């Protein structure tokens, strides 16, 4: 059984669908802090199978031990973490307790097993900060984290590097995501709009749905072709499929190193204005926006060198920016009952 922590979240739920479509049995553990139990129904609607579920905050070490006692866990994909950059600046202690404490509880259980099990860690391109060269490869320098959230990803990776050295046979893959967007084509699952959106694409679709009068573009005076920031927007289903490929890569003992890192992106940069144009193309409607001040902490440009995932995992994205933006808009219209 594959344990998917945070499996009711945006990327987690899409990964559970991909896992079940490949025949894996899944147990989701989630504390519902940033999701709802309804997502279980959505997962079932998307792929015909309802995964096992247990509500648990992974900071509860007894609860984590109980998971391993009651289930034969053969692999772990660990998403469960708080992930709001701005909130992490205001609540660093809660972020370290949750994100690092949860990881340590899982690892403490793994080391009690007769045979360690594969561990896929949800990391982020945020570890690169403002990379010196583009596209960004896995060899790029890790820059000092710009937020406690980003630091929990960096520290999480360091903990895993140390643990694989000490735990014979323990194999870990860290997946550094670029910018996940979109929704499953069934639109039975998508990015839940909990609170005011921080990210660009949910803000675009909620503005288009009339929840906000206009979108603010955070600066158009950057040294980029059109002055707006450039990012690598990856369809969440492409990202989900990469997790299954990575897990199966370790399960099939194809990993050459105990600890491997892969950047997951399309390999193509898109500016904020290009994403807006994509939305207008796929929706057929104009988006109202204004140019505002730069947002603190934004890097100028970040997009992935995907050659390592292409060559080692045999994985690359299949879906375009338009497909991803269109699926995000379909999801928005569905949840607004349009
Ligand atoms: C993208 C671009 C904004 C909103 C974040 C996290 C990162 C990772 C991915 C978890 C930027 C601009 C946005 C708006 C705008 N998450 N923007 N107006 O910041 O690249 O990455 O998500 O690992 O850790 O930081 O994504 O979608 O917030 O911003 O102009 O209303 O859109 O300035 O250039 P970001 P984003």
Instruction: Say what the CATH topology of the domain at 2-181 and 234-265 and 312-317 is.
Output: Rossmann fold
Could you report the average pLDDT, rounded to the nearest whole number? Answer: 97
Question: Secondary-structure element order, as H and E?
Answer: EHEHEHEHHEHEEHEEEHEEHEHH
Which radius of gyration do the C-alpha atoms yield? Answer: 19 Å
Enumerate the strands of the largest sheet in spatial order, edge to edge or round the barrel: 3-2-1-4-5-6-11
CATH class of the domain at 2-181 and 234-265 and 312-317, please?
A: Alpha Beta
| Number of extended strands | 13
* Alpha carbon gap, first and last residue: 38 Å
Bound molecules: UDP-4-deoxy-4-formamido-beta-L-arabinopyranose
> What coarse outline follows from CA principal-axis ratios?
globular
Write down the oligomeric state.
single chain
Describe the main β-sheet briefly: 7 strands, parallel
Reported CATH architecture of the domain at 2-181 and 234-265 and 312-317: 3-Layer(aba) Sandwich
Strand-residue fraction? 15-25%
Stretches with pLDDT under 50, minimum 5 residues = none
SSE class? alpha/beta
The CATH superfamily label of the domain at 2-181 and 234-265 and 312-317 reads NAD(P)-binding Rossmann-like Domain
Number of helices: 11
Short account of what is shown:
This protein has 338 residues and is of the alpha/beta class.
């Amino acid at each position: 059984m594959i344990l998917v922590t945070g499996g009711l979240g945006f990327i987690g739920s899409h990964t559970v669908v991909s896992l079940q479509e490949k025949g894996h049995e899944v147990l989701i553990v989630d504390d519902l802090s940033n999701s709802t139990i309804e997502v279980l129904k959505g997962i079932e609607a998307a792929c015909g199978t309802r995964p096992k579920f247990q509500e648990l905050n992974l900071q509860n070490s007894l609860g984590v031990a109980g998971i391993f006692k009651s289930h034969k866990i053969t692999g772990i994909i660990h998403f469960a973490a708080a992930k709001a950059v701005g909130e992490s600046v205001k609540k660093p202690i809660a972020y370290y307790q949750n994100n690092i404490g949860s990881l340590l509880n899982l690892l403490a259980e793994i080391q009690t097993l007769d045979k360690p099990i594969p561990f896929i860690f949800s990391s982020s391109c945020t570890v690169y900060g403002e990379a010196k060269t583009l596209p960004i490869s896995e060899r790029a320098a890790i820059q000092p984290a710009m937020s406690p959230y980003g630091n929990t990803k960096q520290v999480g990776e360091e903990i895993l590097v140390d643990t694989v050295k000490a735990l014979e046979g323990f194999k870990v893959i860290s997946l550094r995501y670029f910018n996940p967007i979109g929704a499953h084509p069934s639109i039975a699952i998508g990015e839940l709009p909990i609170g005011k959106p921080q990210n660009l694409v949910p803000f675009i679709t909620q503005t288009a749905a009339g929840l906000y009068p206009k979108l603010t573009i955070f600066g158009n005076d950057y040294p980029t072709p059109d002055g707006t920031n450039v990012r690598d927007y990856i369809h969440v289903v492409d990202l989900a499929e990469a997790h299954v490929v990575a897990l199966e890569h370790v399960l099939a003992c194809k990993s050459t190193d105990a600890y491997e890192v892969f950047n997951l992106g399309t390999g193509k940069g898109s500016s904020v204005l290009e994403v807006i144009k994509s939305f207008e193309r796929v929706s057929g409607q104009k988006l109202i926006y204004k140019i505002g001040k730069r947002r603190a902490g934004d890097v100028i440009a970040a997009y992935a060198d995907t050659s390592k995932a292409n060559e080692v995992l045999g994985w690359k994205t299949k879906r375009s920016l338009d497909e991803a933006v269109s699926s995000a808009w379909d999801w928005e219209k569905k949840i607004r009952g349009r």
